[in-house]
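seq as requested:
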Amino acid sequence: MKKLSLALAIAAAFTATAFAKEVTVSGEGKCLKCALKKSDKCQNVVEVKKGDKTVLYTLTGDVSQKFHGELCQKTKTVEVTGEVSEKDGQKSIAVAKISYKKKFSGSPSDSKRPFHALWNGLLHLWVR
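struct tokens:
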């Protein structure tokens, strides 16, 4: 009976990790201590806006710790990929990847026609 219980416990552990879902979220990366003043020690967090609500995810793991110098004392738009968990109402992400969220710097018409800006620039040089 003990062997069966042990086998079921091991199977349950593997099943839970096999179905853990990796997600990617984008939002404002900040330091919980320096930017939000909600902790006694530095901790990376990302604030994700979903409609009218803002969800705060605590970022954990080595990848997050190595990236902390980029977020401490500064707020940056980041994209975080990892496994989400929740404990006592606080959501956290075990970070697998974190990077700056790239912002499109052109006009809205340029996003629909990627060569439009290039063409206008070349045309402007030719007309001179």
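The first helix runs from residue 2 to 18.
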